[in-house]
């Protein structure tokens, strides 16, 4: 088992990890999630004794990594698949690691077969693809048949078959009673692989719970309701009835209604009582990605700004949507859109007020004022197009 208590790491004035406490238990795959720069890599380096914590402690089986006898036989890790001498063959690379740890040479051939590199054992690693390098890194982690395994982005560069193989390998290792700690940015893969999640943001713990509980706690279940498309009045009538009953009703882009705050049975009864026919009434739950985005939206350090070349695009021509209309305001990327996900309730996300609006893109030289743009496009659309080009 891996246990961190009050783990803090500072690099000068920058605090990468602050007062982080969690446990990674054996028998389950524990996913380690967080935005870029959240402190995941720093945390894993402290677990492996590569970085010393400023304060707090982290132990493996009750002992710091550096105090473990013959650590490679107890802990296996994949942090950087490129940390291989390019002139060595796959077999010689693993053989050197085995000799340092007192592991029999026959184990090298075993793990090469496990990761599927048995046919390229004599090839130099500098000629390996990214996916092959990942497989070699996983083989090095498995070399000592350890009880604790840490993987940082293990499916990076793998094809679909390789991703499926890694997923099954993680589950198999956990089913054997091992401690498996996996860091990844692929939410869809974590949803299929992990049983438990530890989520951090800006170096602090945001969540430590099973995957299903995490999704339920950070998303709102909703019902999708559709009335006959040929009878728009029925849709408005149902919206009013549901709102009066305490439901929150949002319009979907395809004409359906998204309803929260009311169970499906209540929605059905209300529609029946209002004499409204239903074409669809189905329950929906957010995905792991949506729940993750909702929880961590305030802890993201790197956001896309507006496209600075957008002013070079030609304005709409007569007959095209948007012709003759004033420019629409650009919604910043960090503002949730209606019908997607809402900010977490106050008090549940410590970073809810942290994000700052992205800096406005500088106006292009000699750009006409917004009030004049529609007039110019109406008077001489063809000339405006030539100027934009």
From TrEMBL:
Residues 2-227 form the ABC transporter domain. PROSITE patterns: ABC_TRANSPORTER_2. Residues 310-389 are annotated as: Disordered. SMART domains: AAA (SM00382). The keyword Nucleus does not apply. Pfam families: ABC_tran (PF00005). Keywords: ATP-binding, Nucleotide-binding, Transport. GO terms for molecular function: ATP binding. The keyword Transport applies. Residues 315-330, 355-372 have a biased composition (Pro residues). It comes from the Bacteria. Gene3D superfamilies: P-loop containing nucleotide triphosphate hydrolases. Belongs to the ABC transporter superfamily. This is ABC transporter ATP-binding protein. It comes from Streptomyces hydrogenans. The lineage of its organism: Bacteria, Bacillati, Actinomycetota, Actinomycetes, Kitasatosporales.
